[in-house]
Write a structure and sequence with these properties.
The chain has four helices and no strands. The chain is mainly alpha-helical.
């Protein structure tokens, strides 16, 4: 048994049969190349998305990493808030302050 993908035929109205040509400066062409590569799509798809108002947001890699790290912090803060709202006294306020300080530092890139 082969594992081949079967493409569904597009309706005639959905086929891309019209072409548009543009001229770019070398700097513009390089920018198009890097932005489309960053999105993992072809240059044509990138331009089509921009034209259709689906302009992709380019998130710097450092922000992606920090976002993942912040989810751990958010979970810890949520648990802390749950305990405080339940009237439970935090055992070690200094540890909580240190944790929050580390969190703030990580958001600023001061703590790794």
């Amino acid at each position: 048994m082969t594992n081949q993908r079967v493409r569904k035929k597009k309706a005639e109205s959905e086929k891309r049969s019209c072409a548009a040509w543009i001229r770019l400066t070398p700097a513009e062409a390089e920018l198009l190349k890097s932005r489309s590569a960053a999105q993992g799509i072809t240059q044509a798809a990138y331009l089509r998305n921009c034209f259709l108002g689906k302009i992709p947001v380019i998130v710097p890699e450092v922000n992606v990493a920090k976002f993942g790290e912040s989810s751990k912090w958010a979970s810890a803060l949520s648990q802390l808030a749950k305990h405080l709202n339940a009237g439970e006294v935090a055992e070690d306020i200094d540890a909580i302050k240190a944790l929050l300080s580390k969190f703030r530092g990580s958001l600023l890139g001061l703590v790794r």
